[in-house]
Amino acid sequence: MNAVTTTLTEDQLALAEVTLDFAQEQLAPHAVAWDQDKHFPVDVIRRAAVLGLAGVYVREDHGGSGLSRSDGVLVFETLATGCPSIAGYLSIHNMVAWMIDRHGDRTQRDRWLPGLCTAATLGSYCLTEPGAGSDAAALRTRAERQGDHYVLTGVKQFISGAGASDVYVVMARTGEPGPGGISAFVVERADPGVSFGPNEHKMGWNAQPTRQVVLDGVRIPADRRLGAEGDGFRIAMNGLNGGRLGIAACSLGGAQSALDRSLSYLADREAFGSRLLDAQALQFRLADMATELAAARALVRQAAEALDGGDPLAPRLCAMAKRFATDTGYAVADAALQMHGGYGYLSEYGIEKIVRDLRVHQILEGTNEVMRVIVARGLTETLR
Fold first, then answer.
1. Contact present, 54 and 94 (Cβ < 8 Å)
2. pLDDT by residue (tens digit) across 36-57?
3. Pick from 202, 195, 199: which is nearest to 211 by CA?
């Protein structure tokens, strides 16, 4: 991977090397076949967990790696050079594990984190609904308190890992309309009343399932609630700050792989008596692609450092990084496909898969239009 590494510590360089080896040995050789077969390689995810990649941010006393967000963006960028779809799922799984570690009590952490960190238990995040996407505070799934239990009723949409995952962090309404009436719960796949829609037919991310999660009077003990009643929206947004960095990093890794493949292809391909790599027009485009990726990488790392340091501007920086890196990653991958000509359109070269996988990064974890809203609000709030 031709990433800029001059600012990395020795530990981070070692982490990148181990993760890159895994990506190139365990993910890259199978990525196209998994995409075509719509195969979710749980066994490979569990091998990643052996390296500590399923509990990246979880504290070590519960089996996690205890790494920083700065370490995490390096992990997910590197994994995505092998397969953006699997790297993207691992980013979401790690977000779920972090939310339980950060907002759960001791009993909740003891119950779920060991399994999540080994990937014996897989996790999914349930915020979006059929009628509440970008306007997440308008969600309608309800959690009615009945003595020592809550009864959850509603439908969650576009849930990565649904059906295969064992643990679902679900946002549901316990109070008044708006963000203050939302609470967070941990629902298990085996809970009576939990079911799943069919696996969605998608443009990309085919190596992981995406289904509705249907909650039909799911009765769970009150001790499954994360935090206090009304804390759910804050918990959800805190999780998404890190999730946005993970998806941004996955865009960088997928695009870097597309750029690297383009360099090799242009070096081997001749036209009009010379290598395509020697054509100045193509060299200029390659230079722009590398420059844009380097700029996006720098912004992602700046946002990760801000989140690690508790900077009050971190949510805005995470939104900036997510918007810029996912737009840049998709543009670079699309340019790489063009450089491959007709071969880029063939599935066996793997470029068109990267393009399809990276397209959804501009939508999930908050659309890029919503990222602009977050940034704009931060810029203008002092003038109100």
1. yes
2. 999 999 999 999 999 999 999 9
3. 199
Can you read off the two tokens belonging to residue 356?
A: 């399809």
pLDDT reported for residue 279: 94
Residue with tokens 């009993």: 107
Distances (CA, A) of 244 to 173, 300, 308, 370, 380: 24, 10, 14, 12, 22
From CA 198, how far away is CA 205, in angstroms rounded? 15
Catalytic: 365? yes
CA-based radius of gyration for the chain: 21
Q: Which residue, 248, 253, 252, 263, is CA-closest to 336? A: 263
For the four alpha carbons of 268, 273, 277 and 278, in that order, the dihedral sign comes to positive
Distant-in-sequence, close-in-space partners of 299: CB < 8 Å, separation ≥ 6: 317, 320, 321, 324, 325
- Give the whole-angstrom CA distance, residue 350 versus residue 265: 12
Collect all residues with Cβ–Cβ distance below 8 Å to 244 and sequence separation of at least 6: 318, 319, 321, 322, 365, 366, 371
Tell me how far CA of residue 190 lies from CA of 226, 310, 323, in angstroms.
Answer: 19, 37, 36
Rounded CA separation 202/136 (Å): 22
SS3 258: helix
Q: 26: which DSSP letter?
A: I
| pLDDT for position 73 | 98
Find residue 144's DSSP bridge partners: 151
Q: What's at 223, amino acid-wise? A: D
> Residue 135: its pLDDT value, please?
85
DSSP-assigned letters across all residues of 85-122: HHHHHHHHHHHHHHHHHHHS-HHHHHHHHHHHHHTSS-
Number of Cβ within 10 Å of residue 366's Cβ equals 24
Q: How many residues in the chain?
A: 384
Q: Which residues of the chain have pLDDT under 70?
A: 1-6, 384
Summary count for the chain: helices (H), strands (E):
11, 10
Burial (0-12, 13-18, 19+ Cβ within 10 Å), 37: exposed
Residue 57 contacts residue 94 (beta carbons within 8 Å): yes
Q: From the candidates 129, 292, 352, 365, give the one annotated as an active-site residue.
A: 365
